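Entry type: protein chain
Record version: 2
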Amino acid sequence: MLPTWLTVEYLEPKLRAYCKDDQLKVLKIWAKPATGKGQNYVGIMTRIYVDYQQGDGIVQKKTYIVKQACSPDVPQAAVFFEYDVYNREMDMYEFLLPKMKELLQEAGISGKLTADAIAVDREYSTMILEDLAEYKYINADRVKQLELAHTKLTLDLLAKFHAASIILKQRHPELLTQCFFTHFFSRGKRGYTEVFTGLFRAFLSFINGQPELKKSYGQKLEKLHSQIMEIGAKIFEVGEQDLQTLNHGDCWTTNIMFQYDDAGKPETAVAIDFQFSNYTSPAIDLHYFFTTSLREEVQDLESQLIVDYYNALKASLEKLSYKGIFPSFKEFQQQFDSRRFMSLLSHLFKPVIIYNGSEVTSDFSSLYKDTEEGLRFQKAIHDSELVIRSTTRLLAILEDKGVLDL
């Protein structure tokens, strides 16, 4: 359904400004939900269909995505408002992303980063965005996860995004307001403490149901439970010598869209959903992406993927005429390794990301609360051979690298 305020009279001046056509006339608007139940916990997505007539008389039929904040009365709303996710994303689409696009274009670096914003309306906590489906961008399968070609395109996109953000901070530091230095593990914030400790409790419950995993890792994981928010805060901290970039903040399969050639091969990638973007080490984005979104055989190529990303980032910064400190590859590898705990924290979301069963919830808190519905949903999403296998693989790596030792 269309929001009651989204009328022809509301939309027409917005489209006139975006299309730079003072004679444009909106003829008709109608709508459909853009996501199914349980696919988007953070907001309400609506695809609107708009017929409009240009000043030259040509009639266009376009679709746009309307993205609204979730209602204040849904259970997860308090968490999202505490972390300022809606203002943050509106700032991204209104100020930061257009400036980053401009910087890349000036340097001759082609390709879209994301959808353009037609309008950002803070009164209604709403954005009207380009519909990337019109450019034939689609999501890869979150359950099957990404193979190598999709992974490399995403790393190139992240490198471009991170590079542009480094220049942005140098030239327009005023755009990076306080919300971009807030993250899941920010000290003094409370909402995500309940989320992550609840997710970890569900994870421990799963581990305790797997005799071999419990025997090998149970005690160490139990000890970590009360420490995860503090460890999370530490890995987000950056020193003067650390590479610092604006991170996407939620870089997983469903937040990346791909264009394909006629043979079905992915050609380009763009990012969507910037509610959790924050300024920290780019290693945070990489760990989150590698853990949540890559097939096992691609995860096995981690050392080469880090080289690919590092080289792409360096090349983009050279094109952008960056003159600041840039780490050697060995230094960057150390910065990446020192934040490996992020892969365990990211893994807490993996069971729901790759879940393909019939248990559905539209309540974000079902992921972490020990209510009857929550416990049932948590059991359902962990009950999978793929979850067992990926957990076994990850814990073996973390144990080998000493990450599970307090």
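Comment: The first strand starts at residue 25 and ends at 33.
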